[in-house]
């Protein structure tokens, strides 16, 4: 039978110390529900003694009926005072949390420098505080702050801190690498010694990513005998972040045969990680291990032909185990196998033997050479493939655009666009202003089309990226524009390339709308004559 | 004495397999120069057999006179053919690179599934290819693809692959964890065994970050006896990326007493990492270990007061060792001291006590809040500080610009700009075309000024970058434009921010020219009247 590891999530407490992360009480409740579904065993909600937001969280979380133990965080009592009079400890008790995480100093240097007290008083602060919280029937996790730095400088004192906490009734002794500077082999050695010396104590591990080793340090501690992991979702946390539970859980469970959560729950990992990044409003790096959008994406040509024969050739696990999926990227480095598998994804039958297929592959490679990049522009690629396959019908024809940006000293800049397109027999000419040149073009083009294709009202541009391609030539060099659009159901991306940023944007804009109209029909002319005329007059 | 570790950078080859990373030949040359200054020992430039861009890189990099060994990547010869007739091997030789990285299969499963050949033929492919490249006097790094998976499945065969490569003359045997699925303790055990079994062979390590363990796996291999590290800057690479040299180098050198590069070079690490992220146009995560903007940022109140007493309380190394710096997020102190130290760099005396200094610091902070970034725009910052100091003289006054982009179906796009400025008592109105809108504006503005300030003929724009700031709002969101300009002596950078890409570009353009004119005087009106009139007629 596998050894069980207890998962202690501190996204809502230590995670919020990360730069740019700020969660309302509502956000915290949503995340707590999601973490509970994932199956973590402890949810550290915040610091009841610090602010009103956390007090509200602790009150409301009790109504959710979660399985996870809700945990409140706080420090040992102040020096020279008593535990039952300490306002912070009181608020931990009043929070209604089932468990308390009590942080105390274990590095003598910190006792002197940060607390400015004696080593003995620090031990008393720890013992008193734990005894008090245990009297109040809370489960107690003792966080030994800076444990590894403390142990390296003064092992006797660091261990005496753990012994004091254990004697006072702490249920877990968590060894914290607070500054993130410890290496995996050091963690392994130190935790192994403690496992032997502190027989009967349950050890936990809390690491930070300052050396890009937080996950490895956690695994080392578990291999050396620790049985609880503190970490955050997506590795949120101060400086370089905390240990990332999204990597630790699958490493422990899928690769090292420890038991953390159920297989069904681990299948929710990707979804949970992305949900939390949405709530926290933090962009998730595409290359994030296990749960990132590129974690199982394949770009190189040789790789792709092997992957299509057998996924194990270039994948260390099945992406579905963590709820992620395989993606085949198309790029200049890739051969025709990428393009063919992309076509297959789109249910397009392309025969690699026939002349048209060779032509379209040649065309795509040529476009990539000119600076187009289809790995971020699936919709533009799909349009090209459907055109090549003869199954694309043009629903509007471009005639001209003009774009004017004007600024006079002391006045705001003005952007206007004038667009002429033909739909069936009609020529439509529209004008619009905008917040910037691309917005003006978008407004004018949409104004021309929306009377004929009302579904366009539901779509909007959701992302806009510009990349200068050959920087040697500065303002005369090429730019690539990527536009992401969305409607109520889905999201798609298109690309445009030109020496002229306005023309490149226009190209991506037009592709976005062509894609949105896939599957629609040219309007019946007579039906629309009146509304067109109206459109021109109204706008 | 410390053991030396050889650093093999593959940012330009394996790094470009990362999603969203695409480098031109020019970009690659700039990065190669910077990597060489950092002191890496090998720079793998690309795959000469794959595309024209890489062939161009290998040709041009020879003229740079770098210290690092330039390395070309390629696969073993095709099955059933001979090495000297293999086009890819030929192109590796013709590239002019000093060293070759030859990748071969070491996992029997891959020999059958991906190569579809016999185990014996695979060994012959490896031996023949190495022998051929060694005859051509190249240093040879043999990349044993999927070595760890191979070793776990069929250790005898995996080791026989290494023996064959060694016997054929390979200088380095690099063990690749291609799928990124191996754990640090497995790496340690396997590499330890190989170090013992393959006495006399030099081992290298190449890991991927699929389990968030690439850095730890690399350290494990070094501790077990490997002496070369393959990795990429910022961990760029396919899926979850390659091993991140920006974390590995300081871990090995500052914490484990191995010798990689000099202390001065490691002091350039942050700067190099950020430069490469700019060239690759990939956003660097703020929480990136060692080199990220938040790597030494402190937010928590208790932390900050302790940090102010002694940095070691919450910092695992001195940030300056890797060229980074401490930031106190809650404190105004950090911002102000940065600006004051910048002013000092420019020989500007700003007194932190006086009201004007407080005003300019407030203004800069406000601009940063709006999206300006002066880290990459020294010249714009200098203009602000000189203005605040009352030592800036405006040599031309903006009155208006108009910018028109026009395209008709079937014709090329046309960009025109109309600029009105005042110089002394004269109002100058010019018109110009350009390759794109910014080029047209640049041409028109220059046309207006160059008759008065002929030194402007010597300057030109050398780089142009656009970044979308708030992607939530798509085309109505803000953009930041960075322009780099140069003349015969120097290079300077300026910034503009607006919801309108044209206005942001104009702002950066105007700053660039204002900076170029620093120290010049308004022309004597009478002298210039004639040439102005001529100027207007001529252009």
UniProtKB/TrEMBL annotation, chains A, B:
InterPro entries in the cross-refs: 2-isopropylmalate_synth_dimer (IPR013709), AIPM/Hcit_synth_CS (IPR002034), Aldolase_TIM (IPR013785), Citramal_synthase (IPR005675), LeuA/HCS_post-cat (IPR054691), LeuA_allosteric_dom_sf (IPR036230), PYR_CT (IPR000891)
Catalysed reaction equations from the record: pyruvate + acetyl-CoA + H2O = (3R)-citramalate + CoA + H(+)
NCBIfam families: citramal_synth
Family as reported in the entry's similarity comment: Belongs to the alpha-IPM synthase/homocitrate synthase family.
Sequence ranges assigned to domain Pyruvate carboxyltransferase in this UniProt record: 5-267
First-level EC class: transferase
Pathway in which the depicted protein is active: Amino-acid biosynthesis; L-isoleucine biosynthesis; 2-oxobutanoate from pyruvate: step 1/3
Record key words, sorted: Amino-acid biosynthesis, Branched-chain amino acid biosynthesis, Isoleucine biosynthesis, Transferase
Pfam families found in the cross-reference section: HCS_D2, HMGL-like, LeuA_dimer
CDD domains the UniProt entry points to: DRE_TIM_LeuA3
PANTHER family: (R)-CITRAMALATE SYNTHASE, ALPHA-IPM SYNTHASE/HOMOCITRATE SYNTHASE
Natural source organism: Paenibacillus bovis
UniProt-recorded Gene Ontology molecular function terms: (R)-citramalate synthase activity; 2-isopropylmalate synthase activity
Keyword GTP-binding: no
Presence of keyword Transferase: yes
Protein name, per record: Citramalate synthase
Signal peptide limits: none
């Amino acid at each position: 039978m596998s050894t069980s590891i207890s998962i202690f999530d501190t996204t809502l407490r230590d995670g919020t110390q990360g730069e740019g992360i700020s969660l309302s009480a509502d956000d915290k409740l949503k995340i707590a529900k999601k973490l509970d579904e994932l199956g973590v065993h402890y949810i550290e909600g915040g610091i009841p003694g610090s602010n009103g937001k956390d007090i509200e969280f602790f009150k409301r979380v009790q109504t959710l009926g979660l399985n996870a133990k809700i945990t409140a965080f706080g420090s040992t009592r102040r020096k020279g005072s008593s535990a039952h009079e300490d306002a912070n400890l009181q608020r931990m008790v009043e929070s209604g949390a089932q468990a308390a995480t009590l942080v105390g100093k274990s590095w003598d240097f910190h006792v002197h420098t940060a607390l400015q007290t004696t080593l003995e008083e620090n031990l008393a602060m720890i013992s008193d505080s734990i005894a008090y919280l245990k009297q109040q029937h809370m489960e107690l996790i003792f966080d030994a702050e800076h444990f590894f730095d403390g142990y390296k400088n003064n092992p006797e004192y660091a261990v005496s801190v753990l012994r004091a906490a254990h004697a006072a009734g702490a249920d877990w002794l968590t060894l914290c690498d607070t500054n993130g500077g410890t290496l995996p082999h050091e963690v392994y050695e130190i935790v192994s010694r403690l496992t032997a010396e502190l027989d009967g104590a349950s050890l936990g591990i809390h690491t930070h990513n300052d050396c890009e080793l937080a996950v490895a340090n956690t695994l080392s501690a578990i291999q050396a005998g620790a049985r609880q992991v503190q970490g955050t979702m997506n590795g949120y946390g101060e400086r370089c972040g905390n240990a990332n539970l999204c990597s630790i859980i699958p490493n422990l469970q899928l690769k090292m045969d420890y038991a953390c959560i159920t297989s069904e729950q681990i299948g929710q990992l990707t979804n949970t990680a992305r949900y939390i990044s949405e709530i926290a409003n933090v962009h998730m790096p595409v290359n994030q291990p296990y749960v990132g959008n590129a974690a199982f994406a394949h770009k190189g040509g040789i790789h792709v032909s092997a992957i299509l024969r057998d996924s194990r050739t270039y994948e260390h696990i099945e992406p579905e185990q963590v709820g992620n999926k395989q993606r085949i990227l198309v790029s200049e480095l890739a051969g025709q196998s990428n393009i063919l598998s992309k076509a297959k994804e789109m249910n397009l039958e392309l025969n690699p033997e026939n002349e048209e297929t060779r032509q379209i592959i040649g065309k795509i490679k040529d476009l990539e050479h000119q600076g187009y990049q289809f790995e971020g522009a699936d919709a533009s690629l799909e349009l090209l493939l459907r055109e090549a396959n003869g199954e694309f019908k043009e629903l509007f024809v471009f005639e001209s655009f003009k774009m004017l940006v004007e600024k006079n000293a002391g006045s705001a800049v003005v952007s206007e666009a004038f667009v002429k397109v033909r739909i069936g027999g009609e020529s439509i000419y529209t004008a619009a202003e905008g917040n910037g040149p691309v917005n003006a073009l978008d407004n004018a083009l949409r104004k021309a089309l929306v009377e004929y294709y009302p579904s366009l009202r539901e779509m909007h541009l959701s992302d806009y990226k510009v990349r200068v391609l050959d920087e040697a030539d500065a303002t005369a060099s090429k730019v690539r524009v990527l536009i992401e659009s969305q409607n109520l159901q889905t999201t798609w991306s298109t690309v445009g390339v030109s020496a002229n940023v306005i023309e490149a944007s226009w190209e991506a804009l037009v592709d976005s709308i062509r894609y949105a109209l896939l599957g629609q029909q040219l309007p019946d002319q007579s039906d629309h004559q009146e509304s067109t005329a109206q459109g021109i007059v109204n706008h």
